[in-house]
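User: Can you model how 1,3-dihydroxyacetonephosphate sits in this protein?
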Amino acid sequence: MRKKIIAGNWKMNTTATEGKVFIEKLLQKKLSEKVDIVVCVPFTHLCSVGKMLKGSSMKLGAQNMYFDENGAYTGEISPLMLLDLGVEYVILGHSERRSLFQEDDELINRKLQSALAHGLKPILCVGENLEERETGKVQKVLSYQLRKGFDNLSRQEASQVVIAYEPIWAIGTGKTASDEEAEETIFFIRKTMGEMYDSEFSENIRIQYGGSVKPSNIKGLMNMKNIDGALVGGASLNVEDFEQLVNYEL
Ligand code: 13P
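Assistant: Here's the modeled complex, given as C-alpha coordinates:
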Protein backbone atom coordinates (compact mmCIF):
# COMPACT_ATOMS: atom_id res chain seq x y z
CA MET A 1 0.00 0.00 0.00
CA ARG A 2 1.47 3.37 -1.01
CA LYS A 3 1.25 6.06 1.68
CA LYS A 4 0.01 9.39 0.33
CA ILE A 5 2.48 12.29 0.43
CA ILE A 6 1.37 15.90 0.43
CA ALA A 7 4.14 18.46 0.01
CA GLY A 8 3.95 22.22 0.08
CA ASN A 9 6.31 24.04 -2.27
CA TRP A 10 6.55 27.60 -0.96
CA LYS A 11 8.67 28.67 -3.96
CA MET A 12 10.23 32.14 -3.45
CA ASN A 13 7.64 33.33 -0.96
CA THR A 14 7.75 34.61 2.65
CA THR A 15 10.66 35.94 4.68
CA ALA A 16 12.24 33.63 7.25
CA THR A 17 10.36 35.58 9.95
CA GLU A 18 7.02 35.06 8.21
CA GLY A 19 7.88 31.42 7.64
CA LYS A 20 8.39 30.89 11.38
CA VAL A 21 4.98 32.39 12.17
CA PHE A 22 3.40 30.14 9.53
CA ILE A 23 4.99 26.97 10.95
CA GLU A 24 4.05 27.98 14.51
CA LYS A 25 0.40 28.17 13.43
CA LEU A 26 0.61 24.92 11.50
CA LEU A 27 2.10 23.09 14.51
CA GLN A 28 -0.98 24.01 16.54
CA LYS A 29 -3.27 22.19 14.09
CA LYS A 30 -4.19 18.55 14.31
CA LEU A 31 -2.78 17.07 11.12
CA SER A 32 -3.56 13.66 9.66
CA GLU A 33 -1.10 10.87 10.39
CA LYS A 34 -2.28 8.89 7.40
CA VAL A 35 -0.27 11.03 4.99
CA ASP A 36 3.37 12.06 4.83
CA ILE A 37 3.52 15.86 5.12
CA VAL A 38 6.48 17.79 3.73
CA VAL A 39 7.14 21.53 3.71
CA CYS A 40 9.63 22.66 1.07
CA VAL A 41 10.67 26.09 2.25
CA PRO A 42 13.25 28.55 0.84
CA PHE A 43 16.90 27.83 1.74
CA THR A 44 16.96 30.79 4.14
CA HIS A 45 14.24 29.15 6.27
CA LEU A 46 15.67 25.64 6.51
CA CYS A 47 17.62 26.20 9.71
CA SER A 48 14.81 27.73 11.76
CA VAL A 49 12.01 25.62 10.31
CA GLY A 50 14.12 22.47 10.71
CA LYS A 51 14.47 23.15 14.43
CA MET A 52 10.75 23.83 14.79
CA LEU A 53 9.78 20.60 13.04
CA LYS A 54 11.94 18.37 15.28
CA GLY A 55 9.63 15.97 17.07
CA SER A 56 6.67 16.73 14.80
CA SER A 57 5.36 14.47 12.06
CA MET A 58 6.09 17.03 9.36
CA LYS A 59 9.18 16.59 7.21
CA LEU A 60 11.56 19.25 5.98
CA GLY A 61 12.15 19.72 2.25
CA ALA A 62 14.31 21.96 0.06
CA GLN A 63 13.38 23.23 -3.39
CA ASN A 64 16.65 22.60 -5.19
CA MET A 65 20.32 21.71 -4.68
CA TYR A 66 23.58 21.45 -6.61
CA PHE A 67 25.15 18.03 -7.19
CA ASP A 68 28.64 18.65 -5.83
CA GLU A 69 29.50 18.57 -2.12
CA ASN A 70 31.47 21.83 -2.04
CA GLY A 71 33.61 24.06 -4.20
CA ALA A 72 33.61 27.20 -6.32
CA TYR A 73 29.90 27.32 -7.19
CA THR A 74 28.86 30.79 -6.10
CA GLY A 75 25.28 30.92 -4.91
CA GLU A 76 24.69 27.16 -4.88
CA ILE A 77 23.69 24.87 -1.99
CA SER A 78 25.09 21.35 -1.59
CA PRO A 79 23.56 18.09 -0.36
CA LEU A 80 25.83 18.19 2.72
CA MET A 81 24.48 21.61 3.64
CA LEU A 82 20.92 20.33 3.37
CA LEU A 83 21.61 17.20 5.42
CA ASP A 84 23.24 19.28 8.14
CA LEU A 85 19.96 21.17 8.61
CA GLY A 86 17.79 18.06 8.82
CA VAL A 87 16.43 18.16 5.27
CA GLU A 88 14.86 14.89 4.15
CA TYR A 89 13.28 15.70 0.78
CA VAL A 90 14.49 17.84 -2.12
CA ILE A 91 12.47 18.97 -5.13
CA LEU A 92 14.48 18.49 -8.32
CA GLY A 93 13.67 19.39 -11.91
CA HIS A 94 10.75 21.69 -11.12
CA SER A 95 9.42 23.20 -14.36
CA GLU A 96 10.29 26.68 -13.12
CA ARG A 97 13.92 25.63 -12.78
CA ARG A 98 13.82 23.95 -16.19
CA SER A 99 12.34 26.97 -17.95
CA LEU A 100 13.65 29.99 -16.01
CA PHE A 101 17.08 28.64 -15.05
CA GLN A 102 17.79 26.44 -18.07
CA GLU A 103 18.10 23.17 -16.13
CA ASP A 104 18.20 20.28 -18.57
CA ASP A 105 17.53 16.60 -17.99
CA GLU A 106 21.23 15.79 -17.77
CA LEU A 107 21.82 18.27 -14.96
CA ILE A 108 18.67 17.11 -13.18
CA ASN A 109 19.90 13.52 -13.42
CA ARG A 110 23.26 14.46 -11.86
CA LYS A 111 21.41 16.19 -9.02
CA LEU A 112 19.20 13.14 -8.55
CA GLN A 113 22.20 10.81 -8.39
CA SER A 114 23.88 13.06 -5.85
CA ALA A 115 20.78 13.49 -3.68
CA LEU A 116 20.31 9.71 -3.53
CA ALA A 117 23.98 9.04 -2.83
CA HIS A 118 23.62 11.36 0.18
CA GLY A 119 20.43 9.75 1.46
CA LEU A 120 18.10 12.60 0.48
CA LYS A 121 14.73 11.75 -1.04
CA PRO A 122 14.22 13.55 -4.34
CA ILE A 123 10.82 14.73 -5.53
CA LEU A 124 11.40 14.65 -9.29
CA CYS A 125 9.04 16.93 -11.23
CA VAL A 126 7.99 16.07 -14.76
CA GLY A 127 5.29 17.53 -16.96
CA GLU A 128 4.36 18.86 -20.38
CA ASN A 129 3.53 22.38 -21.50
CA LEU A 130 0.30 23.41 -23.20
CA GLU A 131 1.62 23.19 -26.74
CA GLU A 132 2.95 19.69 -26.10
CA ARG A 133 -0.44 18.64 -24.72
CA GLU A 134 -2.34 20.16 -27.62
CA THR A 135 -0.11 18.50 -30.19
CA GLY A 136 -0.37 15.06 -28.62
CA LYS A 137 3.20 14.88 -27.29
CA VAL A 138 2.48 14.24 -23.59
CA GLN A 139 3.68 10.65 -23.52
CA LYS A 140 6.77 11.38 -25.58
CA VAL A 141 7.78 14.29 -23.32
CA LEU A 142 7.17 12.39 -20.08
CA SER A 143 8.89 9.26 -21.28
CA TYR A 144 11.97 11.32 -22.19
CA GLN A 145 12.04 13.19 -18.86
CA LEU A 146 11.66 9.95 -16.89
CA ARG A 147 14.26 7.96 -18.81
CA LYS A 148 16.81 10.80 -18.64
CA GLY A 149 15.97 11.65 -15.03
CA PHE A 150 16.41 8.05 -13.80
CA ASP A 151 19.48 7.34 -15.94
CA ASN A 152 22.17 5.41 -14.02
CA LEU A 153 20.06 4.93 -10.89
CA SER A 154 19.99 1.48 -9.36
CA ARG A 155 16.60 -0.04 -8.60
CA GLN A 156 17.24 0.48 -4.90
CA GLU A 157 18.12 4.17 -5.38
CA ALA A 158 15.26 4.79 -7.75
CA SER A 159 12.78 3.38 -5.24
CA GLN A 160 13.51 6.35 -2.95
CA VAL A 161 12.30 8.86 -5.55
CA VAL A 162 8.87 10.47 -5.43
CA ILE A 163 7.67 11.57 -8.87
CA ALA A 164 5.54 14.70 -9.16
CA TYR A 165 3.51 15.02 -12.35
CA GLU A 166 3.02 18.74 -12.82
CA PRO A 167 1.50 19.77 -16.15
CA ILE A 168 2.98 23.21 -16.75
CA TRP A 169 -0.31 24.62 -18.01
CA ALA A 170 -1.89 23.86 -14.63
CA ILE A 171 0.77 25.52 -12.44
CA GLY A 172 -0.39 28.74 -10.82
CA THR A 173 -3.10 29.16 -13.44
CA GLY A 174 -6.12 27.97 -11.49
CA LYS A 175 -6.61 25.34 -14.26
CA THR A 176 -6.34 21.88 -12.78
CA ALA A 177 -6.13 18.75 -14.86
CA SER A 178 -9.41 16.90 -14.39
CA ASP A 179 -9.24 13.93 -12.02
CA GLU A 180 -9.43 11.58 -14.99
CA GLU A 181 -6.83 13.46 -17.03
CA ALA A 182 -4.38 13.42 -14.11
CA GLU A 183 -5.10 9.76 -13.41
CA GLU A 184 -4.62 8.77 -17.04
CA THR A 185 -1.25 10.52 -17.29
CA ILE A 186 -0.04 9.24 -13.93
CA PHE A 187 -1.03 5.73 -14.98
CA PHE A 188 1.17 6.22 -18.05
CA ILE A 189 4.06 7.32 -15.79
CA ARG A 190 3.58 4.23 -13.63
CA LYS A 191 3.52 2.02 -16.70
CA THR A 192 6.73 3.62 -17.97
CA MET A 193 8.41 3.01 -14.61
CA GLY A 194 7.36 -0.63 -14.93
CA GLU A 195 9.09 -0.81 -18.31
CA MET A 196 12.23 0.85 -16.92
CA TYR A 197 12.39 -1.37 -13.82
CA ASP A 198 9.71 -3.99 -13.15
CA SER A 199 6.07 -4.31 -12.15
CA GLU A 200 6.75 -4.55 -8.40
CA PHE A 201 8.78 -1.36 -8.63
CA SER A 202 6.05 0.49 -10.49
CA GLU A 203 3.43 -0.66 -7.97
CA ASN A 204 5.44 0.84 -5.12
CA ILE A 205 6.77 4.14 -6.44
CA ARG A 206 4.79 7.17 -5.29
CA ILE A 207 3.52 9.61 -7.92
CA GLN A 208 2.02 12.95 -6.92
CA TYR A 209 -0.07 15.36 -8.94
CA GLY A 210 0.72 19.10 -8.86
CA GLY A 211 -0.88 22.13 -10.47
CA SER A 212 -3.54 24.33 -8.84
CA VAL A 213 -4.36 21.78 -6.12
CA LYS A 214 -6.66 23.35 -3.53
CA PRO A 215 -9.09 22.25 -0.81
CA SER A 216 -11.98 22.17 -3.30
CA ASN A 217 -10.33 19.69 -5.70
CA ILE A 218 -8.02 17.56 -3.54
CA LYS A 219 -10.52 14.83 -2.68
CA GLY A 220 -11.37 13.97 -6.26
CA LEU A 221 -7.71 13.79 -7.21
CA MET A 222 -6.73 11.69 -4.18
CA ASN A 223 -9.54 9.23 -4.86
CA MET A 224 -7.90 8.25 -8.14
CA LYS A 225 -6.21 4.85 -7.99
CA ASN A 226 -2.77 5.93 -9.19
CA ILE A 227 -2.41 9.37 -7.58
CA ASP A 228 -0.39 9.15 -4.37
CA GLY A 229 -0.44 12.72 -3.14
CA ALA A 230 0.02 16.31 -4.20
CA LEU A 231 2.75 18.88 -4.68
CA VAL A 232 1.09 22.15 -3.79
CA GLY A 233 2.26 25.69 -4.55
CA GLY A 234 -0.13 28.58 -3.89
CA ALA A 235 -2.49 26.81 -1.49
CA SER A 236 0.41 25.67 0.71
CA LEU A 237 1.01 29.31 1.67
CA ASN A 238 -2.25 29.59 3.55
CA VAL A 239 -2.34 27.76 6.91
CA GLU A 240 -6.03 26.86 6.76
CA ASP A 241 -5.85 25.70 3.16
CA PHE A 242 -2.77 23.56 3.84
CA GLU A 243 -4.47 22.10 6.92
CA GLN A 244 -7.50 21.18 4.82
CA LEU A 245 -5.30 19.67 2.13
CA VAL A 246 -3.43 17.32 4.45
CA ASN A 247 -6.66 16.48 6.28
CA TYR A 248 -8.62 15.86 3.10
CA GLU A 249 -9.77 12.48 4.40
CA LEU A 250 -10.97 13.67 7.81
P1 13P B 1 0.36 25.77 -7.78
O1 13P B 1 -0.25 24.84 -6.76
O2 13P B 1 0.47 27.20 -7.28
O3 13P B 1 -0.34 25.67 -9.10
O4 13P B 1 1.87 25.30 -8.00
C1 13P B 1 2.12 23.97 -8.29
C2 13P B 1 3.59 23.74 -8.21
O5 13P B 1 4.35 24.19 -9.05
C3 13P B 1 4.10 23.00 -7.06
O6 13P B 1 5.43 22.64 -7.22
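A couple of observations from the model: The chain is about 40% helix and 15% strand. The beta strands are 5-9, 36-40, 58-62, 89-92, 121-126, 162-165, 206-210, 229-232.
User: Helpful, thanks.
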